[in-house]
């Protein structure tokens, strides 16, 4: 085939053990997720010639490749926070299409929760104090404070209410109640969210993602491998990536996320419109991220995110646009850089394998078009992937 002409499919997805996993290592979670994803696809690891990983060790992905017994001829260690995995998926798809790789494994594992519990690390208040961050960190401008400032700006400019933001957490929990693998499944109300302890104004505890352990893996392959797989392919239709800023002073508009660019590129390259998408998996370290990303992906106009989310549209059961169908980072799992989990859930939904939380069309069939959009840093970067059956 001419370079760049090969179609790319996701044929294997899996989660490692997630939630409370006290007696293991990040490397073991990488291996567990990788084995399960390869088994899901029905392919042998000897066929994997590409590996993408970030967030573990000094020489990622070299250390992960060694641990997994792989000798890849294509690697990616791009690290842009939570959007890492959507950006890596874009790079992998381009490499496969160009003939530089045939089967690329994206894999992640983290014991973020267990490490804090055991005293091996502390909570991440910032990403360090060197470079541009030296002008913010000394003044107490923590990671969560950056998101809180952005949320407050949206509230001031567009009249978004704290109740509307809280409804994002409520709907995420309702979706998680349908997911036996979710870490938190008990129902919550808007009043529950508002009554929680204040973390960073306007965010109370339930506006913020949970901290868990866990891992995930996704296998992308060239189209000629699909016939050898045990699963139906989910095709990568279009991708986009964008880096916005690091310093808050360099962010032109706190109410516009980088998904406004990555999403536009992904939809244009896929040749589809946002209104055709049947479900969305969106990075949700905080409730505001879901709301503003929905706006910037084009599911509603700028400033209308509050009214869009408050009407139950995000629910698996009865929602117009089911969002974070597994419960998201707010309720299901969030072991650090969660972007890979978005791809796993989107693929499971498109294959009709999501169990009680399965999104269905009116005729009972599984959806045919989904989007996964990851965000990194404090809205610093974004990667968006459009997937279809």
Automatic annotation (TrEMBL):
Keyword entries, A-Z: Acyltransferase, Transferase
Organism superkingdom: Bacteria
EC number, as in UniProt: 2.3.1.16
Record flagged with keyword Transmembrane helix: no
Molecular-function annotations in GO: acetyl-CoA C-acyltransferase activity
Pfam families: Thiolase_C_1
Gene3D superfamilies (UniProt xref): 3.40.47.10
Domain Thiolase C-terminal: residue ranges: 240-389
PANTHER family assigned: ACETYL-COA C-ACETYLTRANSFERASE, NON-SPECIFIC LIPID-TRANSFER PROTEIN-LIKE 2
Name by which UniProt lists this protein: 3-ketoacyl-CoA thiolase
Organism of this sequence: Streptomyces griseorubiginosus
Gene designation: fadI_2
């Amino acid at each position: 085939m001419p370079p760049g002409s090969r179609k790319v499919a996701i044929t294997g997805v899996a989660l490692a053990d997630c939630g409370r996993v006290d007696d293991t290592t990040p490397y073991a979670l990488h291996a567990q997720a990788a084995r399960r994803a390869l088994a899901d696809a029905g392919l042998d690891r000897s066929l994997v010639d590409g590996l993408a990983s970030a967030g573990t060790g000094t020489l990622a992905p070299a250390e992960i490749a060694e641990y997994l017994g792989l000798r890849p001829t294509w690697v990616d260690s791009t690290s842009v926070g939570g959007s890492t995995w959507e950006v890596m998926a874009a790079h992998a798809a381009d490499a496969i299409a160009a003939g530089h790789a045939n089967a690329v494994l994206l894999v992640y594992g983290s014991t973020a929760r267990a490490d804090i519990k055991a005293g091996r690390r502390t909570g991440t208040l910032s990403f360090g104090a060197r470079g541009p961050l030296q002008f913010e960190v000394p003044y107490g401008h923590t990671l969560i404070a950056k998101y809180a400032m952005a949320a407050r700006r949206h509230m001031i400019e567009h009249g978004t209410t704290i109740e509307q933001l809280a409804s994002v957490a409520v709907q995420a929990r309702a979706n998680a109640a349908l997911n036996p693998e979710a870490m938190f499944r008990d129902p919550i109300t808007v009043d529950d969210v508002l009554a929680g302890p204040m973390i960073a104004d306007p965010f109370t505890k339930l506006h913020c993602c949970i901290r868990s352990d866990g891992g995930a893996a996704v296998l992308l392959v060239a189209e000629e491998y699909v016939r050898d797989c045990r699963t139906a392919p989910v095709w990568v239709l279009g991708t986009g990536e964008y880096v916005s800023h690091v310093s808050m002073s360099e962010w032109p508009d706190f109410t516009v996320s980088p998904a406004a660019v990555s999403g536009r590129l992904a939809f244009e390259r896929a040749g589809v419109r946002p209104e055709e998408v049947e479900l969305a998996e969106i990075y949700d370290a905080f409730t505001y991220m879901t709301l503003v990303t929905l706006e910037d992906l084009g599911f509603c106009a700028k400033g209308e995110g509050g009214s869009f989310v408050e009407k139950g549209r995000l629910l698996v059961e009865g929602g117009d646009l089911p969002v974070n169908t597994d419960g998201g980072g707010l309720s299901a799992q969030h072991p650090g850089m969660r972007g890979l989990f978005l791809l796993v859930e989107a693929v499971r939904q498109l294959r009709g394998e999501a169990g009680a939380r399965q999104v269905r069309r009116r005729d009972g069939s599984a959806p045919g078009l989904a989007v996964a959009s990851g965000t990194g840093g404090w809205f610093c970067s974004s990667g968006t992937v459009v997937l279809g059956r």
